[in-house]
Amino acid sequence: MKKVISILLVLVLSATMFGCANSKGDDAQNSENTAVTSEANDSGNKKVLVAYFSASGNTKAAAEYIAKNKNADTFEIIPKDKYTDEDLDYANDSSRVNIEHDNEEKRNVELEVITPDNWDNYDTVFIGYPIWWGSAAWPVDNFVKQNDFDGKTVIPFCTSASSGLGESGELLKNMSGKGNWLTGQRFSSDVSEDEVKSWVNGLDY
Ligand SMILES: Cc1cc2nc3c(=O)[nH]c(=O)nc-3n(C[C@H](O)[C@H](O)[C@H](O)COP(=O)(O)O)c2cc1C
To answer: For the chain, is the Cβ count within 10 Å smaller at the N or the C terminus?
Structure first.
């Protein structure tokens, strides 16, 4: 009889232990699944693009600092007819920039590529440009007009010798007509990585 009771006890104990081990295993699996899902959300739903036009490299440097610190892709807005140093000479009344500045209909700059690859995957788009005569350099206009910003957060930034951001972001927002446009930021032409980093990491979007 004693022997039968001992066998029964052993059976009951091992059944209880197996049950515990099994439920622990389920918990571990569940939390693993949750971690995978949230990781997928982080990388899957928060893709960032830094699109920029830069005639002489300053805005490009700022764009690359943003991309580095946000783990973002970059897209350069390139005019089909690129601006040479002569074109950019605003001290010369008959330079290309002066002619375009004086005639609004000549500011319709055709671009090599309008829409970046995988455009739909980006939910945040930084847009960078130099300031020309107090406004966004017009080669960004067709990028803004011809892409669909619906559902995207858009963050303008610019470089300039001394002018502020002014209404440049606001005017681009009106051209686009879509997207959630944030105020944006102006940097000096020779901005440092630390300055860009502290701005971009302080953004709440
Ligand atoms: C045609 C032209 C107009 C400019 N107008 C202004 C201006 O109104 N205010 C200003 O502070 N800087 C002005 N700048 C200086 C540029 O904004 C500055 O050098 C900028 O960092 C250039 O950026 P990028 O190298 O990316 O082209 C102008 C430059 C050019 C070529």
So the answer is: N
82 CB within 6 A, ligand 1: no
pLDDT at position 191: 98
| Per-residue pLDDT tens digits for 143-201 | 999 999 999 999 999 999 999 999 999 999 999 999 999 999 999 999 999 999 999 99
Q: Which atom of ligand 1 is nearest to the CA of 62?
A: 26
pLDDT tier, 46 (very low <50, low <70, confident <90, very high otherwise) = confident
- Nearest-CA residue for ligand 1 atom 5 is 132
Q: Which of 61, 145, 149, 71 is nearest to 108 (CA)?
A: 145
Backbone angles phi, psi at 75, to 5 degrees: -140, 120
**Cα angle, residue 97 at apex, residues 95 and 98 outer, rounded to 5°:** 65
